[in-house]
Design brief:
With 295 residues, the chain is α+β, with helices and mostly antiparallel strands. It is built from 12 helices and 11 strands. Helix 3 runs antiparallel to helix 4, helix 7 (207-214) packs across helix 8 and helix 10 crosses helix 11 (267-278). The radius of gyration is 21 Å and the shape is globular.
Length: 295
């Protein structure tokens, strides 16, 4: 759902993010899963599991980022936005009916959307409004093999993820989302400033201009932003620009061009801001990121 206020038109809170940091799904499994099934973080994928029917117990060994054990007795959705080891314990004979996809967020661990989400979002399907039509099509397409099935199912899974993101923007506390840009986008006033920064990161964004976009006083905006998002507006803008720089560096864009488009006076200014945030220069970071992607 788009954010709106009585005095202004609705705004699109998601497109600017998802256009720059895409989510790609790859159909993984459909049908019964029996016994013990492992999904290891070392595989390098996030996962979206849709439990269509049956019972499921899921465990998360050696972590405090998610409950050690969970049980589901009704249709449910489990989203692991980042690589995260989890194990399914299903009845040994009848199993449980699943439809699953691997997920890859552009930029991997540097993707701001994946970083903003908790390690696991687990919800009964009945609680998430807006998924019905997409899931109906998903279940129909995974029921039997047809021409173009895999490509179509991948796209449907991506639609389900986007629809889930829509729901999260309106229910961040229910999903356990910690303070960050998702909680900021959930506030109709802050959302206007955040979307403006997302769409035009290279422009000059003093706090007064951000507050004006939000329809708030400068002081009220700064205090509310820090409380809801968990950092100052200036720090958030810097983090967003560096995340964009990381994404574009991976695409082969030169630092000189990035400095111009992201609002830095020159490449040296971007390099200094990058090093202060990431702990290494853009060249060093790119070498390390490239090495990791080759593994």
């Amino acid at each position: 759902m788009c954010a709106s206020s009585p005095t202004s038109s609705p705004i699109d809170r998601l497109s600017g993010i998802l256009e720059r940091f895409r989510v790609q799904a790859q159909f993984h499994h459909s049908g019964a899963l029996c016994g013990l099934n492992h999904f290891d973080a070392c595989d390098g994928h996030g996962y979206l599991h849709v439990l269509r029917r049956g019972r499921l117990e899921v465990s998360h060994p050696d972590t405090r980022e998610a409950p050690r054990s969970m049980r589901f007795d009704e249709p449910a959705l489990l989203l692991y936005p980042r690589p995260f080891t989890h194990r399914f314990h299903n009845p040994p004979v009848e199993g449980a009916d699943f439809t699953c996809a691997r997920l890859n967020f552009d930029g991997g661990p540097y993707n701001p959307l994946a970083r903003a989400l908790p390690s696991l979002i687990a919800l009964p399907l009945a609680r998430v409004s807006g998924l019905e039509l997409a899931l109906e099509l998903l279940f129909d397409e995974t029921h039997r093999i047809r021409c173009g099935q895999r490509l179509l199912v991948d796209r449907i899974f991506e639609i389900v993820v986007i629809q889930l993101m829509r729901w999260l923007l309106d229910h961040p506390l229910e999903a356990g989302v910690r303070p960050g840009f998702i909680t900021g986008l959930s506030d109709p006033r802050l959302a206007r400033a955040l979307v403006a920064m997302h769409d035009a990161p290279g422009e000059h964004w003093p706090v007064g201009r951000m507050a004006e976009r939000a329809g708030m006083s400068r002081t009220a905006f700064a205090n509310t932003f820090r409380e809801v998002v968990g950092q100052t507006p200036a720090d958030y803008l810097n983090d967003w620009r560096i995340a964009l720089a990381q994404n574009k560096l991976r695409e082969g864009r030169p630092i000189k061009v990035l400095a111009e488009t992201l609002g830095y006076a020159n490449p040296s200014a971007l390099s200094r801001a990058f090093s202060a945030k990431v702990g290494m220069s853009p060249r060093e970071w790119l070498a390390q990121a490239s090495l990791g992607s080759d593994k």
